[in-house]
Protein 1
Amino acid sequence: MSPPTETLTDNTAWAAAQPVLSVLIPFYRDDPTPLLVMLEREAKALNGRVEIVTLDDGGGDIALTRRAAEQVADLTLPARLVALDANQGRARGRNRLAALARAKHLLFLDSDMAPDAPDFLARYLAMIARDDPPVVFGGFSVKQMPPLRRFALHRALSLRGECLVAAVRSLHPEKYVFTSNLLVRRDVFEAEAFDESFTGWGWEDVEWGMRVARRYGVTHVDNAATHLGLDTAQALAGKYEQSAQNFARVVASHPEVVSTYPSYRLARALKRLPMVKTWRGLLKWTAIHPVAPLTARVLALKAYRAALYAEVV
């Protein structure tokens, strides 16, 4: 993949800032401006200690890029927009954001997140001042997301398996590491960047968490942000279909960790059954059609993902 052309837009506060924390926000055809507005509400209390770097990863939406640039210019927080002319993907884009950041600590925050606490960034600054932590995951929720019917399946999956308090996540610290709300010290990231060989959707952040947990540990705290970008059942199934090869990469690199995961054990069990592709289609149909009870749809989608992974384990 050849290096993309970059267009930089800096606001007036950028040049003179000496940040303690860099907030890194990639986006690809998603509007980051609501998140930028929410972060700006803390600007006065932060006193220039936080900068924002946001990256348009070659989305090709000129109007969206312009709108993001205008919002960056309006912020009193030091801020920069980097617009790429070609998509680089989730891992490479985040690595580029880290290279452009200036602070000792980096906060990866997805563009479809919304901080749950009004002092969200101030809490991270307090952790940095107190502990200088290598890696912290703050958690995420669906607290601010309306319970819309078309997103009911994704919401239910998130509540069951991802929207967990820190005490629960800490039992398997490497498993619950997502770039949606992830604080990383610069020296840690320089030693362990995201693996750019991952393509498509999924697992590149979890794989990174496995590497980093061994060397530095992962701290879990309750400083959540809401995931506003829930998917329809059909879209979520499509992402799972993209993720199988990435799952295979993680299995090959970290078999001792992945072998303890329920998804892996189920995939191995399903691999031994006949006519996998036939009943895999039935599982998908059950998951994406709202005629079945929600609990049954959740179980069907989890089994569908495991059936996809059965081909690569």
Protein 2
Amino acid sequence: MSVTIKDVAVRANVSPSTVSRVISNNPRISDATKERVRAAMAELNYQPNLIARSLTNKSTKTLGLLLPGSNSDLLLNPFFVQIMRGISSYAKSKGYYILFTHVDSDEEEVDVLSNLVGSQWVDGIILTTVKDNDKSIAYLKANNHPFVVIGRPDDDMHTYWVDNDNINAMFNVVDMLIKKGNKKIGFIGGAHEFKVTKNRLLGYLKALKANNIKVDLNLIYEKDYSEEAAYEASKEIINYLIPDAIVTTDDLIAFGVQRALIENKLDTVSLVGFNNTVLSRYKVPSITSVDINAEKLGIFATKLLINQIEKIPILTNSYIINTKLIERDSTK
């Protein structure tokens, strides 16, 4: 059975006429009510009448933000909170609002994008992850809808994107560890389908090669971006050999590694995370991490998107945000 305006009204606790006014972007409706109604539309997968909506020909002043994984995963990973803070602050300064949702698969992501684009709920979309042959990027390009990617896409010359130099950032981490005398260095990252994992792995391999250290595939694990998956990967490495150090692609992964190290009383193994989340400095021992300026990534991504929407001349289609290694107790 199809969802109606009345269903949306009940979910948002407003009248059907209010829902209609939100769809037409009536300026007399408060921003808080607009956000509540649009959230209800997204939850119910409601698509307004496109002909009626198109007659208004008005901007929604709303940006769509797609986040990966389940709701519980997002709450556990501080990285996305940092990204969202940058996105929100810049959007607010330009009079825009954020409609965010999370997806569990490529297919679901394209379905959500189809709903957002078809219903004209948002003026533009921010993708927070990028993969090889990314279906979401292909869909948005095919529909000529404004968007920006946090991460480096395949077609980096004709896509708006922001990222760090992830290859060089990880190279510097591993090179630093080797120069401190660490030779047996494990790598634990998220799924290989994500460009960020792939590029940080390339940096790890590049550093080993530059220092004439043979690659040991038994020290490399690419799993989920979760603390539990990292904990299990760490135990597999420890059962194989006691490493000198372990590098990870995310602080949440580093937390799982640290738990395994503490359980096995391996306090001499160096550990490095990525994203420099607040929790990394309060762990015992505190965790060395690469500060990727996540908030700045969010700010510049939003700037690129709003400039597209408002047809402001754009001098560059991308920004590379600097990183900085923050050394703490977990590296020797």
